[in-house]
Sequence to fold (383 residues):
Amino acid sequence: MRFAHLSDTHLGFRQYGLSEREEDFYQAFEEAVAKIIQERPDFVIHSGDLFDFHRPQPRALWVAQKCFSRLSEKGIPVYAVTGNHDVLMRRGTMPPHVLFGSVGVRLITDEEPFLMHKGVFIGGCPYTSGYYSARLIETLSILSRKARGSKKSVLVLHQGTDRFLPQEFELKMEEIPKGFDYYAMGHIHSRIIQKFGKGVLAYPGSTEMWSANEYDDYKAKGKGFFIVDLDGDEPSVQAVDLQLSREILKEKIAARSIDEKIESLKAGLAKLAAKPLLYLDVDSGDYERKALHERIMSQLSGLALSMRVSYTTPAEKQAAKTLSRSFNIPEMIKEAAKDPKEARLAALLFEALSQGEEERALKEAADFYRDEMGGKFEEDGSG
Fold:
């Protein structure tokens, strides 16, 4: 029994407000589905954040419908849970996934927490915030009991865990019941495969680079999905890579050699088929930063789809490292905030804004207040 495991496709995400980046996420999903069909698995598991927003725009819905129809035509069903981006976390709301039931998408919900596929137990939970972790742990215990006696069992979760997301986790590893053969995880955008209990716990990561802080993992491990074979005593997990639509480049520049580096970058960027995302870390030294910025932008901005430039000196970098060792900022936020949900929002905003991702910060804030105000934030037009 073989299946494909993918997650965090974030259809509809318009990084930096760019329509080209939205299209990149659609293309990544379409490529993933095409490669899944080539692999001919028995089924697909999507472990959350199919969409980037709980009310996807028509194009995002159309791409999802088209891709799920292709899988359905090949007799490949999809089992999915909702992530924190997929659904407004209020009782009675309906996730967009329900639109795709006619093309083979089965949603694992609180009301129907497990399904069977030819003897394989597939159980899971929608994303649950840390505020309701006790309820999540109780559900996991029930699923563990229900899975006993099954030929093979898979647990599907869209949660951050303390081992891999120590500042913002919703679930501790010790709270996840052992006994499942495969743990199909989502929410963390890095690729992770780890032995857990008698089975394997795996995050396939996002299918596109949703945030600049995914760069190192992307360069080391790529982006894509997993093919999982359950036929052996222990699951076999194979990574399948996607070819992203455009290059994502991160470069360090010393101000003293700025002209030489700019010329080198210009030559390289001009050869690319599509304009890349370009992240520059400039050691500004004693140079005037405004003049440096104007020189860089005038020479390179036309060759990149988006360019993010940060300026620091070695002394500033050392001070930042010292500060990070002395102060755990997410923990300080958590201690200062009275409401755990507000603490999580503040930590997300700090992370996004510290990376210069204003669009992401605005979206996180808008999503939070929509949840808290029961949708009125959007309906009143103040979003």
Observations:
- The chain has three domains: 2-241, 248-318, 327-379.
